[in-house]
Design goal:
This protein has a single domain, classed as Four Helix Bundle (Hemerythrin (Met), subunit A) (Up-down Bundle). The chain has helices at residues 16-39, 46-81, 86-109, 116-140, 157-171, 176-185, 188-191, 194-209. Helix content is 69%, strand content 0%. The two termini are 19 Å apart. It is mainly α. α1 runs antiparallel to α2 and α3 runs antiparallel to α4. It contains 8 helices and no strands.
Length: 224
């Protein structure tokens, strides 16, 4: 089995690959959390049901947005710079189309008439699809992002707040040493918003998952 890629470059610096891999880490992390929470859930847990319903909406929005950004920005750039990866990019885009119907099924399962059994099935199938998809992307595409070591400056305060929320989400569970290097590449407007965004997300984590995360991951696979 191939070892998961490190979040940091070989020289210990962060790059756009770090940001991408942290998102992958977070998708895997959250699916594991959903699986564990749904496994112990009972119909009488109304508060937890509502928390999971809201968290699904956030998760599916993050995953769909990540794929949309790849399809419209990252993949065209990779295809232009590395024509030899055209077949890999085509495969990844096609897999996005396979994942979308699962997200719609998840919307139904986590909807007002919360279907715990259907939600468990969706999470299991989505985990299997993403495990293969993310591993292939990490092998084929992510290495070509290692040289990009500046995160683009947000165009507005609203965009800075959005990016801060995204990084707060993807930071949870990642080793502090990795986050220190990530800060090195972030613009000031974004970096100054991160502490508050991370504190807010940590509170949301405790409310939804009713646990404390393990903050030791240095690869795209969650630790613990």
């Amino acid at each position: 089995m191939t070892s998961p890629p490190n979040l940091l470059n070989d020289d210990g610096t962060a790059s756009m690959a770090t940001a991408f891999l942290m998102s992958h880490h977070a998708f895997r992390r959250d699916l594991g959390c959903f699986a564990r929470a749904l496994g112990r859930l009972t119909p009488s847990d109304s508060g937890q049901l509502e928390a999971l319903r809201q968290e699904w909406r956030w998760f599916r929005g993050a995953l769909h947005g990540h794929h949309e950004m790849e399809d419209t920005r990252v993949f065209p750039h990779v295809r232009g710079q590395h024509p030899e990866l055209a077949a890999a990019v085509d495969r990844l885009s096609a897999e996005h189309q396979r994942i979308d119907p699962l997200l719609l099924r998840g919307d139904q399962a986590f909807g007002e008439s919360f279907d715990v059994s259907a939600a468990r099935t969706v999470v299991t199938e989505l985990t299997a699809l993403l495990d293969e998809h993310l591993a292939f992307e990490e092998a084929q595409v992510v290495p070509n992002l290692r040289g990009a070591k500046e995160f683009p400056a947000p165009g507005s305060d609203e965009e800075a707040a959005m990016f801060a929320q995204g990084f707060a989400w993807s930071s949870q569970g990642v080793a502090p040493a990795v986050l220190e290097r990530l800060n090195d590449m972030l613009p000031a407007k974004l970096k100054e918003r991160l502490p508050a965004a991370r504190a807010e997300f940590a509170e949301r984590w405790r409310r939804v998952w009713q646990s404390e995360p393990v903050t030791t991951s240095t690869t795209s696979i969650p630790a613990g």
